[in-house]
């Protein structure tokens, strides 16, 4: 992460999306030593909006850290259909 502070940056790179938009958020995805995937936001977060490429990057980061965590737990990772 290189010394960048987590949380609000005070920037609105896409403009203010709606009245609840609190601006850009710097967050981190990691795998813990006990086999969890952790998303750390640095502040309370009600919602997160991502451009398509950023959403794909988050999905990739989540899978990367899921694989690292699975090495610790020994659990297989099984992808199924999205049910959102």
Description of the structure:
By secondary structure, the protein is of the alpha+beta class. The protein has one domain. The protein is 26% helix and 14% strand. Strand 3 and strand 4 form a beta hairpin. The radius of gyration is 15 Å and the shape is globular. The chain starts with 6 loop residues before the first strand and ends in an 11-residue tail after the last helix. The mean pLDDT is 93.
Unreliably modeled segments: none
Using the CA coordinates, give the radius of gyration: 15 Å
**Order of helical and strand elements:** EEEEH
Q: What is the domain total for the residues?
A: 1
Kindly, what is the distance between the CA atoms of the first and last residues, rounded to a whole number of angstroms? 30 Å
Count up the helices: 1
Q: What is the number of strand segments?
A: 4
The strands making up the biggest β-sheet line up spatially as 1-2
Name the overall outline.
globular
- Major beta-sheet overview: 2 strands, antiparallel
Q: Portion of residues in helices?
A: 25-40%
User: Structural class given helices, strands, pairing?
Assistant: alpha+beta
Mean pLDDT: 93
Strand content: 5-15%
